[in-house]
Amino acid sequence: MKQxxxxxxxxxxxxTTAGCSSAPKTITAQGAITSSTPASLGYRVGGPCKGMxxxxxxxxxxxxxxxxxxxLAIGELDEGVGIRGAEGGVDCQFKxxxxxxxxxxxxxxxxxxxxxxxxxxxxxxxxxxxxxxIDLDGRQ
Length: 140
Prior knowledge:
Helix content is 16%, strand content 40%. It is α+β, with helices and mostly antiparallel strands. A five-stranded mixed beta sheet has the order 2-5-6-1-9. The protein is elongated and about 50 Å long.
């Protein structure tokens, strides 16, 4: 009888805690960075690609996600994939995805000294952002 009560009490506890909802502790910061490329490089939509010159946009390019002056995650860009560009050419797009703590007002995607950085809200970066490399702040 005592064992049966203990099991019922445990199941009841699980049932009440399972229904509790709380804010997520992490979000997935995700998106894509696009780098314009000249037609002379011969990239094709869906094919592999990389940036050119001092662009250094390529698979393995390190990026970090920061908030409130702290580094939350460091990752590397995925391999570039050709996408149809705005002017009919083929641009190169690099995707990223990292788990970061939830609840920050803004998150900064930082591609380093030459590539720059850009700030996004939690809603934007968890939904998935797409930004052209030339629109990053602090580029050199």
